[in-house]
Specification:
With about 150 residues, this protein is mostly beta strands. It is built from 1 helix and 9 strands.
Length: about 150
């Protein structure tokens, strides 16, 4: 399960993926008790009545937890992580999946300190400078594009 520790969609969710950046939604209900959800799958899109909020994973993923279920498709490995709400990001501008992906790649390195391959999403490994006395990271090793 992933825990959203604060913000409009605070709560615990069963998800299969725990990306570094995650959209969560709050459904506007007439009685004021909105239903929350997370868009953890690459093809997930917000419903028209859902407002979008953006969350960032805290630290590194804390592991995976195996869930057994009699419901077909509900068994499997579920992601486990904690997220914080990014209050200064307007999730409504990122409803569209293409816009969301573009925003993630443009901001993930600044937000998390990690860079990810734009083709396959794999985390890139920093390539240290080639010369002694220059400890700064100058780039990333080329991606081998994971096949899984
Ligand atoms: Zn790649």
């Amino acid at each position: 399960m992933v825990t959203l520790t604060d913000g409009p969609c605070k709560g615990i969710f069963m998800v299969r993926r725990s990306p570094a950046l995650l959209r969560a939604t709050l459904k506007a209900e007439l009685d004021g008790t909105g239903a929350t959800d997370v868009l953890d799958q690459p093809d997930d899109t917000p419903a028209p009545q859902e407002k979008v909020y953006v969350y960032q994973m805290l630290g590194e993923p804390t592991g995976f937890m195996h869930i057994h279920s009699s419901v077909k498709g509900a068994s499997g490995f579920f992601a486990s992580a904690e997220y914080k709400y990014l209050a200064d990001v307007d999730g409504e501008q990122l409803r569209d999946n293409a816009a969301w992906r573009r925003w993630c790649f443009d901001n993930v390195e600044r937000l998390t300190g990690h860079a990810y391959c734009r083709k396959c999403g794999k985390q890139l490994i920093p390539a240290p400078a080639r010369f002694d006395g220059e400890p700064a990271i100058v780039g990333y090793l080329p991606c081998d594009h994971r096949t899984s």
